[in-house]
Specification:
The chain starts with 9 loop residues before the first strand and ends with a strand. The protein is α+β, with helices and mostly antiparallel strands. The chain has a domain of 121 residues: 3-Layer(aba) Sandwich (Aminopeptidase). 24% of the residues lie in helices and 32% in strands. It contains 4 helices and 8 strands. The radius of gyration is 16 Å and the shape is globular. Strand 4, helix 3 and strand 5 form a beta-alpha-beta unit. Helix 1 packs across helix 2. An 8-stranded mixed β-sheet has the order 6-7-5-4-3-2-1-8, with helices on both faces.
Length: 187
């Protein structure tokens, strides 16, 4: 790839409280109405339904290395439902499979927890995210008028029912140890 910041390998690991400052920086860079530190902290350490994954450059420790966290995904599993909350990837590294891999790992985790469907909300104008979710099998099921602020915008409600792993997407994975997975996705 011509992008000098491009990475071909990354690993997905569970987020830790020590990663919170770097997650917050990514949150603020990616969203016009970012979650606050307190909101992220609550999701990471105080919400029994919440799960947090981070994508880091392979071979680098995420702790203390701001440049190594390239994406994160906060999702909830509530009974049989996977709810995709926030998915963010560093702008210079988008369209390289990082977001897709974070979502797939959430799917795997949710299926292991016997979830049967997935839901999400996305800004109506966020065409790249909507395209990704559609490619993964989500369909639009509704809209919430003026749901988002800064700017005020509708939310598109999407659902994947039943929850299944996306088909036709090859991925190289090494075995999981300690909650880690390693990906060489190029999608």
């Amino acid at each position: 790839m011509s992008n000098e910041n491009a990475i071909s390998e990354f690993q997905i690991v569970p987020a830790t409280p020590e990663m919170l400052p770097d997650i917050l920086l990514l949150e603020e860079a990616c969203f016009s109405s970012p979650w606050t530190r307190k909101m992220l902290e609550t999701e990471l350490m105080g919400n029994q339904f919440a799960h947090f994954l981070v994508a880091t450059q392979k071979g680098q420790s995420a702790v203390g290395a701001k440049s190594s966290i390239v994406g994160y995904h906060c999702f909830w599993i509530v009974f049989e439902e996977l709810r995709l909350m926030n998915l963010a990837v560093r702008e210079s590294l988008r369209r390289q499979g990082i977001g897709r891999s974070l979502a797939r790992d959430a799917f795997r985790f949710a299926l292991d927890q016997t979830a049967t469907r997935a839901v999400l909300e996305v800004r109506a104008s966020n065409t790249p995210a909507r395209s990704l979710y559609t490619q993964m099998g989500f369909v639009q099921v509704g809209q919430r008028p003026q749901y988002y602020t800064n700017p005020v915008e509708d939310a598109v409600l999407m659902e994947l029912n039943p929850l299944v792993m996306p088909s036709g997407q090859l991925q190289v994975r090494t075995c999981r140890t300690g909650g880690e997975s390693t990906s060489t996705d190029s999608l």
